[in-house]
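User: Okay, second chain of the day. Same drill as before: sequence in, structure tokens out.
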Amino acid sequence: MSRFLWPERLTVSKVAASAALPRRHSSSKPHGRCVSLPPATETIETMRIGITCYPTYGGSGVVATELGQELAARGHDVHFISYAPPIRMNLNDPHIFFHEVEVASYPLFDHPPYALALATKMLEVFEAEALDLLHVHYAIPHSVSAMLARSMAAPRRLPFITTLHGTDITLVGSNRSYLPITKFSIEQSDGVTSISRYLLNQTLRDFDIKRPIEVIPNFVNCDLYTRQPNVAQRAKWAPAGEPILMHLSNFRPVKRITDAVEIFAQVRAKMPAKLVLVGDGPERGAAEFLVRKKKLQKDVHFLGKQDQVYRLLSDADLFLLPSQLESFGLAALEAMACEVPVIATNVGGVPEVVEHNVDGYLVEPGDVATAAKYAVDLLSRADRGREMGQLARLNAKKKFCANDVIPSYERYYQRVLSESRTASA
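Assistant: Same drill. Structure tokens below.
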């Protein structure tokens, strides 16, 4: 017999009534962030959800963190399990908890066995917090750890869902050293989701997966990501009122950040402008060198890693995403929600987000000349592309608002839980 007492499940309609219940090791401070509220007519059982992601400044970690915060806003208990707090996590939310994975280092190990430590911590959190399920983001190694945790928890149920984000399939997972275990862990998952149709097709093609995979796209909080210009901030970057181009990423090679600098250099040769680069990573040095080489130091601002990026995007006139590959293009979506038109590469899942010549422009990777031409044409207009920016927000709201996407995750969780109960009955 299980040694846990499972409290009565609360529905979202009962969340307000549950506010007075005592909570474990959480803060009661208001968290001060805008949240997407659930539709008034929808009733969903609240769940205890464990989320594992890479806590770094990348798309999968950002999506996982934002998902957790949106779920918490809808009354679910969300337990983040990772080696560090995710960059956008807000521990002031009383429904959000963090559990650190501690990895011991021994001389015997060239590399600390994080996957094993993570599996053990997943089991510990399941037992201590009576989790309903685990949701792991990025297949390697998180789905493998979740599979181990599920096995250790037996005969108790601990279903896990794997969300595929991109390079876990297109780069890491397709490496012959990892392909068999990636394929196995995906097929052993109780549920699998993909962030785009492109990534779904890549997964089916490269891994010959036989199980169903649900496409649930990335999303943006349309109440939070909205155009709210900051006059003082804009004046700091562009004191003479120059148009502002912006790029946001983790500065990995696949992001081709030096192409953003090259595009800007060609724009700057035609008109006054400023470039704001948000983020940090291995290619920052190369970008800084290129800026110095082209004598653009006065026109380019490196901001480093930032948390509340919606406060920055609102002051941009144009967003650049010149990546070699994007399975979705979350940064482009965030910009679009802030009424910023996007120039991006026509790769991966980006065309599912940006519609060419409607809410932005698409070019081939490395084609900085065409990207610069589009940028000059747009920024030379008196309204600096305001009409295109407004269309960008309209399309972002139509397809990718958290209010619409989060219920898809909730329904998927409920389906996986129901199938898990049926299978173990």
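Confidence is low (pLDDT under 50) at residues 1-41.

User: Thanks, on to the next one.
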